[in-house]
Amino acid sequence: MISYAQQRAAEQTSFDIPAQPLSAAIASFIRTTGWEVGFTSATVSGRRSAAVTGTMAPAQALQAMLAGTGVSADISGPSTAALVSGPGGAAQGAPVNADGSLVLDTITVSGGGNPADAPYRSSGSGAYISAEQIERFRGTSTGDMLKSTPGVIASANRNGASLEVNIRGVQGMNRVKVTVDGSEQTIAEGQGYPGSRTRSYVDPDLIAGIEIEKGPQMSGAGAGAIGGSVNMRTLDVQDILKDGKQFGVRLKGGLMSNNRQPPPTGTTTFRDDPTSLFDFDNLNGSVAAAATLGGIDLVAAYSRRRHGNYFAGRHGKSTYADDWGNEQTYSLYRPGSEVLNTGLETESFLLKSSFSFLEDHKVQLSWLRSDFSYGETWPSDLLYGALKQNDPRETRTNRLTAKYEWDPADNDAIRLRANVYYADTNDEGAAYAFAKPYTSQNYGFDVENVSQFHFDALGSLALTYGGSFAVEDLNSSQGRVNGSNFFFEGKRDVASLYAKANWSPTDWLALNAGLRYLSYKTQDNSPVSGSYGEFDDLSGSSFSPGFGARLEPWDGVQFFAQYNEGYRPPSLRESVSSYDTSLVPNPFLKAEHARNLEAGINLLRDDVLVGGDKLRVKGVFFNNDIDDYIMRLWPKSSAYFMMDNIDRARFSGIELSANYDTGTFFVDGSFTYFTKVDYCYPSARWENQPDGTSQYVESDVCSSTPLNVDFSAGFVQPRFTGSVTAGARLFEEKLTVGGRVSYVGTNPVANFAPWPSYTLVDLFASYKVSDSFRVDVAADNIFDRYYLDALSNNAVVAPGRTFRLDLTAKF
Fold it and tell me: Please, which residues have CB within 8 angstroms of residue 470's CB and are 6 or more apart in sequence?
């Protein structure tokens, strides 16, 4: 019987790799096959490969590529190989220790290993969402693609087209950084009494992968982001080209049920008759073309999506008992009703090019433009009983990114990466309350280098060091409304330097330590209302250390602990004056200081129950303690709200994620349980003294319920959330079928935007008709549950049962 590994090594693949420098040819081979290839810099330096064209096994193609180079390949597994000088394999010419073991040079491993494994290898917490998962659970709203990620929830996901990410109860005001191809674009907008919204605009139809880091990080993306970061990658050539091809086109198109085109503006009633799946007024489509020629990669893509207002589910609890025992409705929208202002139209363009020069240098340039037209509800409207279809809100974003990499094959001290970006957002505002037009520019750069050193007795050392500079420039000259000043203009600069050392003295122990320096300055450019007086610009700086350890006593079993501190400057929304009449600026506002501790276990095992299977498990305890947490308070001496610091906020809990895959069957699970949520703020009260007198005493009060005037009441995640996805790949993996069950607990903050606990079931199937054509079908919320998403601060009910049909063709 042929083993699973032998079958993998013998799989036939189409190759078209021209003769070129050997290091570049190996990179093409890896991209085509997904293999991992190890080699020393001296082995490939100055050598050129032979051309490889045709359909053959990857092992055969690798041998053909090396013909005449003086280099041979030792194939050690179904998709792994090591390159060595000479024809005799790794052993030839290698020195021998006294015990008879071989002494080999340091090996650099390069490859297309599964990025989904990365979170299971790190000494901290993260997650990876693949293009397959994004397409499988695309859903109706932008944030649906983040579902099933432990500790991560898209806040207010059903209201508008923007994305705001909550990681472990931390969100808003730049606490979580969202980037696309390395460019940041964020705007924080007040939304009246129910809170605020930090907007990032993303078109999921052009996203090919998402990496999520939780908590403060020693990286360019981590500056100021104490909650974590969400890094999205747009389409690259490997996402479009068929294996071994130099040119290719990908066409996608789809339909979605459970929605209707929005009624006329001003409509105050809702309908209860959604469209069928084959209503062609509600569709999506994209075309993407790619080419790779002589070391130059080119991508061009266009996508368009349009759907109307969706309809709520028909089954489930729609009322709750208030503190006095009276039944209250969760929302003005009833089971089965149309949900106004949930329609969406997006149109996006992507151009991307990367090229190599001087063998070890690479440049990537990209431009992404997206136009969004969408319905949105002012949260206070639903709070005070007003239902109305509004005019659509219009937003346009442009992102320009330039990346540079220098990774010389013969120099372990240099692995340089630099990124420069510019993002421009133009928002036309909305015909309600304070949502006035604005323009925003985010621009900056980050640079990082990794130097590796290898010592015979002391193991290996990797030094990572770099810096970043980011600017947010917001202009929202809104004029005067009823005699009040609604100008809002400001600029915030954040600069950061960091360094981190990773030392592996043995193959079972790894230690790390790092330090970041961050400084900021916020400039208030608003015309200041005389009643508030003049305020100085805010500025500050701080050092943030981090350190950790990973222990691997057995192969594939890792224990780790990581401590990182972070420093978040006040956002423009928190510190710039005069953006509405009910909130005044605070010239004494301090930056937040986060201390994040994580401890856990990673388990990576293959061939556990059957040959070729993979088991991945990660369990983490986290404790995120934030000093000087910024909240919206209502000082007794003032008629206005004010942003101010409380002593601390603390979030702790347990996360578990697991994956088991046999090739034929697979199952994924993710679970989050919060053990503590505390907001500690000063309080004062009269206390009776032993002598019979009363004294006014100040003390700290810690409560799981934030002050009811603050935005943070809408940030508290359910105490428990969990999901399980299971499926099978049948008929030689042409057909994939499966489903997902998700459970979300109720709102733990009783006095703010209640939602019921809910359980959802989603189904999916994908069939590869041929090597060029695929059909995907999905049924979201198959039991048509009536529910509000967690962190819904505006009572916009989620969609009911929705069917999706998507067709994909590659040529």
Answer: 184, 223, 224, 442, 443, 444, 493, 494
Q: What is the distance, to the nearest Å, from the Cα of residue 342 to the centroid of all Cα atoms in its chain?
A: 23
Nearest Cα residue to 661 out of 605, 721, 703: 605
Q: Of 2, 7, 29, give the one whose Cα is nearest residue 78.
A: 7
Express each pLDDT in 456-504 by its tens digit. 888 899 999 999 999 999 887 554 444 444 556 789 999 999 999 999 9
Strands annotated E in 507-613: 509-524, 538-554, 557-568, 583-584, 592-606
Please give the helix or strand (H or E) that residue 404 lies within, else none: strand 393-406
Report the Cα 200 to chain-centroid distance in Å: 11
Q: In the structure, what pLDDT confidence band is assigned to residue 577 with cuts at 50, 70 and 90?
A: low
Given a contact cutoff of 8 angstroms between Cβ atoms, the answer to whether 274 and 259 are in contact is: yes
How far, in Å, are 141, 171, 331, 798, 800 from residue 313 at the CA level? 15, 28, 13, 8, 4
Give the SS3 label for residue 650: strand
- Burial of residue 676, with CB atoms counted within 10 A of its CB: 0-12 exposed, 13-18 middle, 19 or more buried: exposed
What tokens appear for 569 in the block? 């400057």
Nearest CA among 80, 84, 63, 147 for reference residue 114:
80
Q: Provide DSSP, 342-378.
A: --EEEEEEEEEEEEEETTTEEEEEEEEEEEEEE----
Show Cβ contacts of residue 388 under 8 Å, excluding neighbours closer than 6 positions. 266, 267, 268, 340, 381
Q: Name the DSSP letter for residue 9.
A: H
pLDDT tens digits for range 103-128: 444 444 444 456 778 888 888 888 99
Burial class (CB in 10 A: 0-12, 13-18, 19+), 146: buried
Mean pLDDT of 139-160: 93
Residue type, 206: L
Taking the model in full, what pTM does it have?
A: 0.84
The DSSP 8-state label assigned to residue 128 in this structure reads: E
Cα angle 383, 387, 391 (rounded to 5 degrees) comes to 115
Q: What does residue 96 show for φ and ψ, rounded to 5 degrees?
A: -120, 130
